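Recap slide: CACO2 protein, sequence and predicted structure.
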Amino acid sequence: ISFQGEVEEIELQNKNLRQENEELKGTCASLQKQNIHLQEELQRKQELQNSLESLRSSKETLEQELNSLKKENAHLQELDECRVAELQQLKEQIQNVTSEKEHLENRLKTALDHMDQLQSQVLDYEKEMENLSQLDCDKTKQLESLKEENRELRVTGTQQQQNQDLMKELEEQKHLLQILQAKKTEADEKNQKLREENDELLRHLSQTTVVSSFSQAAVPAPGAGGLLFGNPYCAFKLTLFVQVSLRKCPMCDEVFPEAVGTEQYQAHVQSHLLECPLCSETFDKSNKQVFDDHVFCHGLE
């Protein structure tokens, strides 16, 4: 009986111990939860501490930034005052630009009106250009026909040049003849004066009975012409013979006697000339530039 009582007592103790154990387990679990909660709070406090330190450093940084911002704000206020003045200037400039814009719009309107007038003039000019183009075509056709006529005239150019040379030589001969005629007229006048003097001397001799030996020796006997002082036509005939027998170069005035052949005379005259190889026209060698310009004009045709 005592053993069974002890067993029951032990079982009761075990039961109580189990209950206490369960209570302790619950308490332990509660303590573990509290521990976890405290650790979490400690961690949060640590984080808060870190955050606080970070906030302190941020506060210092913010204070520095605040001071910098205050300085910038003061600078911005100064700039704002400057910008207000600039804004006033801009308003004045805008007003000026607006007035200038109105002026430019008026000028643009005038320019557009003038452009319309110019466009109408351009249309008129285009019509005139078309007319001029047509006229140019007509002129080109006329030029072609003139070139053809010029080619035909070149064929007869050599003969015309020869005719011009002959006419030039004829003019020179006429000029020489005029000189001879003038000398003949002068000789006739001198002959008339000599005749008058001869008649006067004859009248004087007929009135004088005594003739001095000096006068007889000084006065020659009348010649075949019956003139006291000889025939004045003899000197004129000699001069005429000399003039007719001489030929003068029309370029350098060199005189050629009759003994010089015609070929030599023509060769001398030709030495002063330059002949065009295209149209056979001749030019004075002393003015070579005119000859070069003439040949150049052939190259343009």
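Residues 2-155 form the longest helix (154 residues).
Residues 209-245 have pLDDT under 50 and may be disordered.
(End of recap.)
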